[in-house]
Amino acid sequence: MQFQREFIDRVRREVPIESYISRFVPLQKRGKNMVGLCPFHQEKSPSFNVSLDKQFYHCFGCKASGDIFQFVMSYERVDFQRAKEILSEYSGIPIQEKGREEQERTELLYKVNRKALQFYLDMMRSPQGIPAREYLGSRGLGEELQKSFQLGFAPAGFQNLIPKVFSSKEEIKAAIEVGLVRESEKGREPYDFFRERIMFPVLDLSGRVIAFSGRILGPGKEAKYVNSPASSIFDKGRTFYHLYQAKESIQKSRTAVLVEGYLDVIGLVSKGIDNVVASMGTAVTENHIRNMKKFADRFLLLLDGDSAGRKGALHGAELCLKEGLECSVVMLPEGKDPFDLSKTLGRQELQKLLESAVPASSFVVDELLEKTDSRALPEKKRKALDNLYQFLRGFNRDSDREFFLGLGARQLGISMDAVLRDYKGGGAKFPPAGSDNKVKPGGRKSGPTAAETCERKLIALLIRMNPLFSFSEEISSMEFLDPKSAFLWDFLYTRYVSEEEISPASVLSSEIPGEFKEAIAPFLLEDSEMSREDAAKVFGLLTKQQKIFVNDERMKELDRDSTLDQLEKLTRLAYYRTEKEKLLAHIRDAGSALG
């Protein structure tokens, strides 16, 4: 029986996206793309691009992008199931609903996950599991907690599951499908995907094992966590860790607490905070929020106080507000996470901390305005308002927009009438479709900065040319200046280590939030016809250019720092200038191919 993945792949392979879209949008050839007026917003000059070789669309005006399935869902305003039916009717490619054979196949997927879990549990209790037990013990997770959360251990070696756990070809094939073992590209025997990792089982709402997340023992160069890949029984863009165990407590309190990590969940549960969940190594998505609305009326975000935590809180709060789910935020002190606090605070103290949460609306406005208040200079107020205006583009209701504009006006000490007139008059300086993104008087450049462009070109090259992941160690140590590029790198690296597909279409149709797709889509439309050697040269030049931007940023910070001794400041500035000259000399010698 045909599986959903096979149907999706066949449609993408056999149905040219431009032929389908041209039924609704007149398209004209322009180089390797086709262009037309965007069907998702009104415009006079065409900014809607369809990539012929990469099979995705992107609008430079409203930023809509995706593959053929996303186009059907957005244009027809239907869910994914109906989009499949529409494309099946159009293409003649059949969708076969679950029959007895597929039901048996699905049960086999659950079975191999269940058998793998028992193996990992046995390994945790064996002599091979001593390092894992000692590590968990050093983190305050004793035997009782290990058993309660069914923590297992995947031992070292590539050949454990097949000879010891899976007894038939059917089970091996199912294990490959759920990502427990991987097929070798060199024609050898399939090998274990999870090795030398503490294993966290992920359960569906019926308590069945649908996936695993494996954590390395202590620090290391590898990814700290790797997850099972997507399968017909696991979608990490919809799945919460611990929701099966927490759903009764969440339904009773009508409140769910979201944390970042699995250990954060375990730490809070150990102190009696049962209504806690974590997302599966990805940013919270609209689907996460919509699923949670079935159980809770309120989402409480309890996140680390570092830069990444604040960005995660802002994104999660924004989604909750747009989806109509009440939300509050607790930001912890920098350097602390919920697991750390669970080891030092009792239940009542933790409960008091949760009760100190601020409404998401207040948190969002404070973050967007960057702590700007009525005493700030006009330039800073203008920038703060532009941030707020950009944020409000995602809201459909005028009442929501006016509520946030009112909060911003009060904080900045500006009359609501003035802010409302400015917003309705295009105060955020949004460019019309097809504009050239030039800086207007009193405004700011609306497109990405030079540093953002450089980093997004790097990311786009990785997506288009997967062999460039051989530079992954260098990229992991990179100090990204663009938060969106940093997020995209984390997302791509997780896919890379999980051996999931990385291509323009797969990234733009993935579960990542729309803002990140908007950031990278224009760079995926660029000409990609180059050899692997040329791509590596361009990639190397881009990494050096990125280091120059980081150097420039460090020099700006030094100029602004009034606490440093003047001699020390001059010494550091001289060092950064020297490093910059070396990088520029290398770029000049190699011949810039940055375009």
What is the topological layout?
Elements: H1 4-14, H2 17-21, E1 28-30, E2 33-36, E3 48-51, E4 56-59, E5 65-66, H3 68-76, H4 80-91, H5 100-125, H6 130-138, H7 143-148, E6 152-154, H8 161-164, H9 169-177, E7 181-182, E8 191-192, E9 197-203, E10 209-216, E11 225-227, E12 240-241, H10 243-253, E13 255-259, H11 262-270, E14 276-279, H12 286-292, E15 298-303, H13 307-323, E16 326-331, H14 338-344, H15 347-355, E17 358-359, H16 360-368, H17 378-392, H18 398-412, H19 416-424, H20 450-464, H21 472-476, H22 483-497, H23 504-508, H24 514-524, H25 532-560, H26 566-590
Parallel strand pairs: 13-14, 13-15, 15-16
Antiparallel strand pairs: 1-2, 2-3, 3-4, 4-5, 6-9, 7-8, 9-10, 10-11, 12-14, 16-17
Helix pairs in contact: 3-4, 5-9, 11-14, 13-16, 16-18, 17-18, 20-22, 20-24, 20-25, 22-24, 25-26
InterPro entries: DNA_primase_core_N_sf, DNA_primase_DnaG, DNA_primase_Znf_CHC2, DnaG_bac, DNAG_N, DnaG_primase, TOPRIM_DnaG_bac, TOPRIM_dom
Cofactor: Zn(2+)
Catalytic activity: ssDNA + n NTP = ssDNA/pppN(pN)n-1 hybrid + (n-1) diphosphate
